């Protein structure tokens, strides 16, 4: 999403600015999928599975890496470090229930992103259905083998140094979040369920594969600050300490 004059798959030329108020459309022909060491048939409740999605301004194509952990090399370019338009995600099993956790960077890192945080949040929300469709299309063999994953809840993590945009939203099931009409219904659950504190078989993986905090200024793996989590009609303040779940 290019935002700064960009945002996810959207390059902010005059043509794409027009899309700001139009419908976001997924084009399968523009998606390049890389499987990096993962078994396409292995259920993500048994083996870590993550998605790293980036966009090229030169080719106007998306690259989706499906791997055990975030594909760091895919995020090394200067443009990505400047625009921060990547979207990363991971499958999790918590209390025996599968869910997809999607992360995007709204602001923090440099002042330009802070200045347009509201616009970045708006565009990410608009383009995320396209992102989810890219995940579904790119990993279609997995979802065909395990169709119940379409009913998994999708949690969207917006990372920002501005409290208003530093929050988590539940977008309902994966099937609903990628529906043709693009609509979503936030479920009655207000926060993602936490994994068991002690070692168990109902939660996997034991630690997140995504090295992002929910609050800029904390070290990875440390205590996260207050994060707004959105349910149906309520916003709950929740203090989450990763160390307690290890």
UniProtKB/TrEMBL annotation:
Occurrences of domain Staygreen protein (ranges): 26-177
InterPro entries the UniProt entry points to: Staygreen
Short name of one Pfam family: Staygreen
Domain of life: Eukaryota
Family: Belongs to the staygreen family.
Protein name: Staygreen protein domain-containing protein
Organismal lineage: Eukaryota, Viridiplantae, Streptophyta, Embryophyta, Tracheophyta
